[in-house]
Each structure stands twice: as C-alpha cells, then as structure tokens.
Amino acid sequence: MKTIKSILLGSLFAFAAAAQAHDYKAGDLHIDHPWSKQVPPTSQVAAAFFNIMNHSDTSDELISASSPIAGKTELHAHIHEDGMMKMREVGKIDVPAHGSQMLKPGGYHIMFFNLNEVPQLGESFPLTLNFKQAGTVEVEVKVEEATYVPEGMKDEKMGHSHH
Fold it and tell me: pLDDT digits over 60-103, tens only?
C-alpha cells in the first residue's frame, strides 16, 4: 500500500512540476519559461523575459512581439552609452544556430507600454513572438514576484532600473 501511495504522490508532484514549467517549441526553437516581474497596479509599463534555444543549423531572429495587454510592444536592449546603461529599442534579437539568447533584466527583453491591463502576481498573459525563420509562436508569460530570479540567472548581476 505504501508503494502505491508513493507512486501516486510522486506522480502528483511530477504533474505539478510539469504544470509549473512552461516552455514552448516552434520548429527547432525552444522558448523556456516566459516571465514578467510583478508591477504596481497603476503601472503603464512591464517587461517579459525568457531564454530562446536554437537547435537548428540556421540562425534565427526575433523580429517583433505583441500582446493584448499593451498598446505598444517593443524589443529592447540595455546598452552602455556615455558611461551609463540605457535602454533602447532594437529592430531584432539574434538567436545563433546551435546557441541561445537569454532575454533578462539588464539585457535583451520585451517591453510593454500603455498597459490596457496590469496582470497580477501568479497570473499569465499572452505574448505573440514573430521569428524570421520559425514564424509566429504564441506563449503565456507568467507574472512572478518582483524579486524573482530564474534558476539559470541566480549567479548573474541583474538590474532593470529604468522600469
């Protein structure tokens, strides 16, 4: 009887872990855990982050993004200019062949302006990503606590002071 309980409990934990993990595939691209930091209820801006892994022999480019939560959605990067870090819109985000591109605070990211709605902690919202090679990918962005740091970024310096 204990064995059956252990198996059932283990299956339940595995199912819960699978429900928490959200990753998406588009051809040879794998998009891992799209997330956004919780913002105040009156905020007009938010940002999304995730890792894009390219398992193809061909590089790809994220060329645009959109979401119904925002009046405007842009691809952004932090750049070092005049001795300061500044946020700038970019025309594309490269994803190298057999490589990856991390969208993270202080680096490349997706910006949402003129929010129509401010997603609450624990909620998810839709995001459409448009790639030059892989085409359109629909993902759900999970809103995490403002202090959230994904596993792969815990040792890196993080900052997104502009928002």
Answer: 999 999 999 999 999 999 888 888 888 899 999 999 999 999 99
Residue 88 phi, psi (nearest 5): -135, 145
Cα–Cα nearest to 36, from 128, 129, 110 = 110
Chain centroid offset of residue 42 CA: 22
Query: Could you tell me the CA-to-CA distances from 130 to 30, 60, 108, 114, 138 in Å, in that order?
Result: 14, 10, 15, 21, 9
Q: Which residues are paired to 155 by β-bridges?
A: none
Separation between Cα atoms, residue 97 and residue 54, nearest integer Å? 6
Quick check: pTM over 0.90? no
